[in-house]
Design a protein that fits this description.
- The complex is a heterodimer.
- Chain A is mainly α.
- Chain A is built from 4 helices and no strands.
- Chain A has one domain.
- Helices cover 59% and strands 0% of the residues of chain A.
- Chain A is globular.
- Chain A starts with a helix and ends with a helix.
- By secondary structure, chain B is mainly alpha-helical.
- Helix content of chain B is 70%, strand content 0%.
- Chain B contains 20 helices and no strands.
- In chain B, helix 5 runs parallel beside helix 8, helix 7 packs across helix 17 and helix 15 crosses helix 16.
- The longest helix of chain B has 35 residues.
- The radius of gyration of chain B is 23 Å and the shape is globular.
- The chains are: A mainly alpha, B mainly alpha.
- At the A-B interface, helix 2 of A face helix 10, helix 14 and helix 15 of B.
């Protein structure tokens, strides 16, 4: 679950930059709840492209896939399966 | 059920817990009461009483009836909401059968396109529905421009352009809803085609994909979200009262002109004094925020009353310390539209190896094409009145606004990755004033009336700095 820890740390860092220090669960909504903005979704995309080699142009993009730590982790797993 | 209203910033101090409108959505007694029939009636009565002051009384009554139905029979929420837009279209165009027919035709087209994407997701249309939709709409405008004024084709095509302009972004959300299941979600899709809680040409709040995520699932969630809706509506009413006093004081008692009047007087050669020009531009900044807050809170308050815990459209815009943050806080759902349909599709495809170029290019496409396309098509009547090239040329002043915005937003995004200043003055006050000043200046070029030429507007802008061209 090293990948999930890395994702959690990255998201936590994004929240901290906005002075959001509330507890964060793995299934908590990030974008739909307004805790993160669309500009933060861009940061998550860049992180996933660089760290996990995900190509969203090929995989297809849906912001719901970035809405929680669980969803992001599931996305990395799907991308890894597709190879 | 977290929303923007729960501040991310830890609050301290004596007044941290003070709220002008009490947080009734967190009171267990209120939540329990609103789940009982008398409590529901009380909530509906209060909501209707406030709504009556914000929208037309007849429409307020219609909404109150719909919300009563949803409150007492929440299992029928989606069918009631789906019937709403069809009923409203019928009432609106009852005396114009051509417009009514074309409006229903456009809604039917939206449903058909949604069904096509569902049925053939791997087809060319299924993979790029937005390109087909927007290209088709553009061709419709070109075709309408090619007709002779007052001819039979013109009488048919221009109302169709008007109907399509009203629905195009709602259809766009439907055809790009990848996680939708037609057999389950069709009624919700229809409900989003100009939903009954109110909307501009920008879908409030986005499409069915978003509504599915924020729909109240239990009686307790419904009670909480409806109480949030009531709070927001009361806030809209308070702002509407502030707006009345504001206009009476500044434009009545102080006789400060509206920006379009100040510009018109400059064009006529009788400009108002320099300080008045600045005053009206600064006031216009606050007036725009007030206006957007009032209609946004009204729409979202009603949306919450229908059982959807949508984020506010305008949320503390005056606390934004960057331009990108300001547009997120000022007109959230328009920003979301641009990001969903223009920014991300561009950002994910082009210049992937050059981060800065990628950001600037995606921002340029979003504003120079996306924002421009939205406003050009929203104001389709300029094409009808001035012809194809005249309609495009009428956009020249606002195009300068788009260029300035593109530069500002690009820099804002690139600087966001750098270190931030700390302290109240350098960390908050100066950035907030900088955002406000930028918007005050660029808003000179943001005009809906398109009465003045670019040269006249530039001359007026320069005169703010004692430069007389």
């Amino acid at each position: 679950m090293a990948g999930k820890d890395e994702i959690r740390n990255f998201v936590q860092d994004l929240l901290t930059r906005q002075d959001d220090r509330r507890p964060l669960g793995d299934s908590d909504s990030l974008l739909m709840s307004g805790r993160l903005q669309s500009i933060d979704a861009v940061e998550i995309v860049l992180f996933l492209e660089e760290r996990f080699g995900i190509d969203f142009a090929e995989l297809g993009f849906d912001r719901e896939q970035l809405d929680s730590i669980d969803a992001i982790f599931a996305l990395t797993q799907t991308a890894a399966t597709r190879g | 059920m977290l929303t923007q209203t729960e501040s991310a910033r830890p609050q301290t101090g004596r007044f941290a817990e003070f709220r002008l409108i009490p947080r009734i959505d967190t009171w267990p007694e209120a939540i329990a009461l609103v789940q009982t029939p008398p409590g529901k009636l009380l909530l509906l009565t209060l909501f209707g009483a406030v709504l009556r002051f914000l929208i037309q009384p007849g429409y307020a009554l219609l909404l109150a009836c719909a919300f009563a139905f949803i409150s007492f029979l929440p299992e029928y929420r989606r069918p009631v909401l789906a019937a709403g837009p069809l009923l409203v279209a019928a009432v609106t165009w009852i005396h114009n059968l051509l417009m009514l027919g074309e409006t229903y035709g456009v809604i039917g087209l939206g449903i058909a396109l949604y069904a096509c994407v569902q049925r053939w997701p791997k087809s060319r249309f299924g993979r790029r529905p937005l390109i087909f939709l927007l290209s088709g709409f553009s061709l419709l405008i070109v075709a309408a421009c090619a007709t002779r004024p007052h001819s039979r084709p013109a009488m048919i095509l221009w109302p169709l352009v008007g109907a399509m302009a009203s629905y195009v972004w709602f259809i766009a959300y439907a055809v790009t809803d990848k996680s939708s299941v037609a057999s389950r979600d069709l009624s919700l899709q229809i409900a989003t085609f100009r939903p009954i809680w109110g909307t501009t040409n920008t879908p409030f709040p986005k499409g069915a994909a978003y509504l599915r995520r924020i729909e109240a699932k239990t009686p307790e969630q419904l009670a909480v979200v409806q109480l949030k809706g009531l709070k927001l509506l009361v806030w809209a009413l308070l702002l509407a009262l502030v707006q009345i006093c504001w206009y009476r004081f500044f434009h009545g008692y102080m006789r400060i002109p509206l920006p379009e009047n100040a510009l018109a007087m400059s064009v006529r050669g009788t400009p108002v004094p320099w300080h008045m020009r600045w005053a009206c531009q600064i006031l216009a900044y606050f007036e725009l925020i007030l206006r957007f807050s009032i209609f946004g809170h009204t729409f979202i308050g009603c949306c919450r009353m229908a059982g959807f815990n949508a984020l506010r459209n305008t949320y503390r815009p005056l606390s934004a310390t960057t331009l990108i943050d300001f547009f997120n806080r000022f007109y959230y759902y328009f920003k979301e539209l641009l990001v969903d349909f223009f920014y991300f599709p561009t950002f994910l495809r082009y210049f992937k190896k050059h981060r800065r170029v990628r950001t600037v290019f995606a921002t340029s496409v979003t504003i120079l094409f996306g924002d421009a396309f939205y406003h050009i098509t929203r104001d389709w009547h300029f094409f009808r009145d001035r012809g194809l090239w005249g309609g495009i040329a009428s956009y020249q002043v606002e195009f300068v606004y788009c260029i300035a915005l593109t530069i500002g937003l690009s820099i804002s995004q690139l600087r966001r990755r750098g270190p931030r200043h700390s302290g109240f003055i350098r960390g908050r006050l100066l950035p907030i004033c900088g955002v406000g000043l930028f918007y005050v200046l660029v808003s000179v070029f943001e005009t809906d009336t398109r009465t003045f030429t670019l040269a006249q507007t530039v001359r007026y802008f320069a005169s703010l700095f004692f430069i007389h061209l």
